[in-house]
Amino acid sequence: MIIILIIVLFSIWGMMWFWWRWHWQDGLFVTVTFSTKRIFQGEKLVLTQHIYNHKRLPLHFVQVMLPVPRTFRLVVGQGDGDYLGNLNQVYSLNGYENRERTLNVQMAKRGIYTLSEIELESRELVTGQVQQHKYPIQQEIIVYPHWLDVNPIQQHWESSLGETLTRFSLFEDPLLFRGVREMQPQDALKQVNWKKTATTGTFYVNQYEPVSQRQLTLVLALPDEASWRTEKYAEATISLFATIAHECLAAGWQLKVLSNACNRQGEPFMMTQLTSMAVVLDACAAIDLEQTTNSESLFTNLLASSEQHVVVCASAAARQLPFLPQLQAALGDQLLWLNMVDHFRADTTTLATAVKEVLLP
Known about the structure:
Layout: H1 2-23, E1 28-34, E2 38-40, E3 44-53, E4 59-66, E5 72-75, E6 87-93, E7 97-107, E8 111-123, E9 130-144, H2 150-160, H3 163-166, E10 170-182, H4 194-200, E11 204-212, E12 215-220, H5 231-250, E13 254-259, E14 271-274, H6 277-286, H7 295-304, E15 310-315, H8 324-331, E16 335-341, E17 355-359
Parallel strand pairs: 2-9, 12-13, 12-15, 15-16, 16-17
Antiparallel strand pairs: 1-3, 3-7, 4-6, 4-8, 5-7, 8-9, 10-11, 13-14
Transmembrane segments: 5-22
Keywords: Membrane, Transmembrane, Transmembrane helix
C-alpha cells in the first residue's frame, strides 16, 4: 500500500513538474517603461517593471533580468548611481497576482541606447531546476550631452569676436506687415501706401517687422582617432558644441554646422541651416566616436568656402592646429577657436589670438 502511495505521489509530482516545465511562462506578462525617453547626461530617470501572473499556478521564484549598458547606473538613496550589471529583480507570485517595482537609474554617458529583450528565469520548488524564457521589448533612451558652464565661454566669446558677433543686421520682412507711417526723405517710392496716401492727402509708407539675418558657422572637430585616451576630450567637445549652439540659437543666429563626426551608420553630421535645438541634441546624441572621419577634409572644405563668422570647437587631443594659420589668414577676427584642455598653459604667448582654452568639466 505504501509503495502504491509513493508511486502515485511521484506520478502526481512528475505530471506537475512536466506541466510546470512547459507552461510556467504561459500567462506571464512583463513590461518595462521609463519615465522619459530623452534625458541629459548625468540626470536620473525612473524605470518601472510590471509583472503579472495570469494563471492559477503560483511561481515561487521568478527573476527578471534586464541587460543594460554600463552607462546605466542604479541609484540607491540620494547619491550617484553605481553599475551593477543587469538590472535583476526577484519576485514570488501567487496565481493572478500583479507586482510592480520602480528603480532610479542615472544615465552616465551620452548616446542612444536600445533595450531589445528581457529574460525571465524560474526555478522548480523541489529540485531547483532552472528554466529561462526571453521576451522581446522595444525601448530606446536618448541621452543628450550635458551643458557646460557658459560664463567662461561667454568671456571668450566677447573678447574674441567682439562687435562682429553682437551686431544685428536687421532687414524688413515683407510678409510681416506692421503698419504705416509718414514718408521720410530716405524712403523709396515703392514703399508708398497709395490707399492711405489718397485718403489723407499725405504720403504714407508701409512698415514691416524687422528680421535678423545673421549666420554663424559652427565647426565640431573631434579627434581623428577614437581611443580611451581621447574619449574624454571628444565628449567634452561635443558638450561644448551643444552649449554654444544653444546660446547662438537663443540669440537669434542662423547656424550652419560642419563636422568630421558621424553617426553609427557613418552618416556625416553636417547641416546647412539649423534653427531647432532639438535637432542639435538628437544629432549630438547619435554621434559615434568610432565612426569619426579625418579632419583634414573638413578644414580643407572650410577654407574653400566663403564663411564669414566661424567658431571651431576642438580639443587638445585633436591635431588640427596646423590649419589654424590658414584659417586665421582667411577669416581674421571673424574666427574663434575654442580648445578643450585639462589644464591651462603657463605660457599663453605661444597661442594664436583666435585660440581660447576651456577647461574640461
